[in-house]
Amino acid sequence: MASSRNRKLTVAELDQFGEELDALRARTVATLGVRDARYIRNVVKAVRYTNLIGRALLFAAAVAGGLWLADSAVGWLFWVLWALGAFSLGLGKILDNMELGHNVIHGQYDFLGDPQLNGKTYDWDIVATSDNWRHTHNFRHHTYTNVRGLDDDIGYGLLRIFPEQKWRPFYLVQPFVAVVFALLFQWGIAIQDLKLGRWWSGKMTNTQLRRKSAPVVRKMGRQLAKDYVIYPALAGPFFLPVLLGNMVANGLRNVWTYVIIFCGHFTANAETFPKECIKNESRGHWYLRQLRGSSNLRGGFLMNVLSGNLSHQIEHHFFPDVPANRYAEMAKEVRAICARYGQHYNTGTLLTQFGQVCWRIVRHAFPSRPRRVPALVQSDAMA
């Protein structure tokens, strides 16, 4: 259990812990500039070209499909072009959501003054609205990370990930639900802020739900039209390969983002906290809660880029508005600070961390007792 690997800190040590991390942030922010601008604009280009290549290959596959009808010998060409097109488009969507959209919406590049990279107005290639994401993710999740009853990301209202969550018979089917959720992840994100449970229980009227869901429905309509009507229609009678390619690309993006996000907070050593823990929470306590509720991934530069640098989930939760391309270098100091204060720095390979997530999903589908995890309150931090 993670708590047994953490040294109990005095109030003074907690304050020092927070001050050291604040100082690291200040030093990093003071050096932001051309390097960071070049990086994020290269990401924009990568998104643009991978999407363009993917769509071009899917159209080429549609043409090859037409030739295939006349000559079966070119059937292999269709499959190669189609697979490469779907993969490239899926890669573009992953980069757009993870390394570009998620980080820009956090305001990481607002310092550039570029209206196309403004965190308050940026929109992304996903059915979820960026406005809802700013509320559910930027505010609620990052403010109340892993606090039960306040952080809606704990199980997303569908899954029992931690034994501290109350068990219900519905959770017996959650291994199946988790697979469906992964395949349709962008849709789950899209409706997260609608609070459909409140509507279902009669706490929200039909009128309130329609008003709240109107922007989401409009965004869903635009995305569906773009991927499943407009682009396939451009292929004329050979629309089906383009339509299926878009579907596979969205599926690849959904599953990948699901895996990365779930590895960020639902591994074996990640903890959840009661609401009382945030009462009179100091800066040092806030950092400590972010640390104990988050998990990193090892994997190098490619993993960092494809995960939107959520491979450094700990650093992201410490410094959500600092450009994510800085997290890898900041992680060295963060890890050293954690070691000095006797705090476990949770990291592992993607296979290891996601294996722990899968174990949690299966194990806690069945009744289980809450762990004895000390609450993060001042009295518990005093030696």
UniProtKB/TrEMBL annotation:
Keywords: Membrane, Transmembrane, Transmembrane helix. It comes from Pseudoxanthomonas japonensis. Residues 78-347 form the Fatty acid desaturase domain. InterPro entries: FA_desaturase_dom, Fatty_acid_desaturase. This is Acyl-CoA desaturase. The chain crosses the membrane at residues 52-70, 76-95, 170-191, 228-249. Signal peptide: none annotated.
